[in-house]
Amino acid sequence: MLNTIKTQIEYCNTPVREALERFKNLEFVDRCINEWEKGKQFPQAWSDSVDQSVNLNALKKADKEILKAFGNAFGTTDLNGQLNICSFYINQVGENLNDAKEQYKMYGRLYCAMGILSGTAIAIILI
Amino acid sequence: MENKKRFEQAISCVSPKVRSLLLNLPQEIKENTQEIRLRSDRPITIVGNYGCRFINQTGRVSYICTQNSAIISSGEITDTFNRICGYSVHSNQNDILNGFITLEGGHRAGICGTGVCESDKIVAVRDVSSINLRIAGEHFGVADEIISKLYSNGLKSVIIAGAPCTGKTTILRDMSRQISGGILENYYKTVIVDERKEIAAVKGGKPQNDVGINCDILDMYPKGQGILTAIRSMSPEIIICDEIGAMDDALAIESGVNSGVKFAVSVHASSYGEIKKRPQVKKLIDIGAFDYIVLLKSGTKPCVISQFYEVGEFKNEMHSNNVYYDFLYNSGQVFKPKIISKNKAP
């Protein structure tokens, strides 16, 4: 999403509203547009929708904070500023993703092994 | 659209607290307000045909500024600015650098702030301190006299000359509406080169002012370039543009005239004498680019015609005791006038 927005801004100078329309299928974007239309300030509408969206519940708090910070800065500067902002948050999200992947590598097998062991233990107890 | 609705449309981008104050203004004030001036941490001022007024915190209108006058905070100015931009400063960058943003309905928000300069050129504006909301008004029929007198036998090239605030742009807009709208029993193909968004006020690709059915708009194109683009790609019968002044505008018009296109343009000049002093206009008159000059009256209400001139007469008068110019093309893109003879036609 952030990459697409960056490209749209870079080549078409697309306004925020138009850029978000493409992602209306995402529940929190749709909610944000609706709130914004009702007269809320855009950063507020964005932040509230990130908090309230059920689909984003799986995200970590840090990830949500990144999304909120992006909403605060989106559309507030000139073209170069916007491109820098997009790049910054794309990197942040990338770093978080890498951390998550590493964590998965580290703890994935452990949790799997623990699950099998616990299951076996329960089975033995039941027998 | 009636004036009250125009007022309400224009203030829809103002931050909520100030908007509710403005919405509660008396009907008469709403109908006659032309400008709403918002300045950071200073009183809200409204300007109209009634003069300059202030709004109290209770929503009442006052002649003088008092301690009770409603003040707009710098935060509310920023919020209003963001709302005007649709929270997309990057999409409005050029408009901001030009000093104003066109809003839905053709209203304009003039922006004042701190300029960020790079080698003598403003590249950005930060810390917006003032916003002047100018409420647009359309005046239908102000070009009736010009259309009936000059266009009854087909299209003509016309210069509308007048001092600032004499209604030149308003007349051009009405001319476009009538010429491309079928008033002359033909929907003439019209192109407007709207360098400063003053004629059609395009917003999101849609003209906010009625400029006629068969009309195309080159929005924010530099006039010279726009005229050439129009000639190349839109096959216009008439091109309309505002405030010609630069040499490359004149050269582009010359090229258009040689392609058989008619022009309706405006020029800043309040008298004969002032038109004579403009080398680019003089050159165009010399080559027969225009058929008529319409001089507007200044000091009265806008769009009042003072005089019609046929260019033949005007040319004789202009050449009676004057200087003649030719254009030099420098190797770059700069055109400079050169005096080629004095007191005698070349």
Describe the protein in words.
The complex is a heterodimer of chains A (127) and B (346). Chain A has one domain (2-101). Chain A is an all-alpha fold. Chain A is built from 6 helices and no strands. Chain A has helices spanning 2-12, 16-21, 27-37, 42-52, 61-73, 79-126. Chain B has 346 residues and is α/β, with parallel strands linked by helices. Chain B folds into 2 domains: 3-134, Beta-Lactamase, CATH 3.30.450; 144-342, P-loop containing nucleotide triphosphate hydrolases (Rossmann fold). Chain B is 30% helix and 31% strand. Chain B contains 12 helices and 20 strands. In chain B, the strands form 5 sheets. In chain B, strands 5-4-3-1-9-8-7 form a 7-stranded antiparallel sheet. In chain B, strands 14-11-15-16-10-17-18 form a 7-stranded mixed sheet, sandwiched between helices. In chain B, strands 2-6 form a two-stranded antiparallel ribbon. In chain B, helix 8 (223-233) runs parallel beside helix 9 and helix 9 runs parallel beside helix 11 (279-286). The chains are: A mainly alpha (127), B alpha/beta (346). At the A-B interface, helix 6 of A face loops of B.
Structural category of chain A is mainly alpha
Instruction: Categorize the overall geometry of chain B.
Output: globular
* Residue-averaged pLDDT of chain A: 86
Strand content of chain A: under 5%
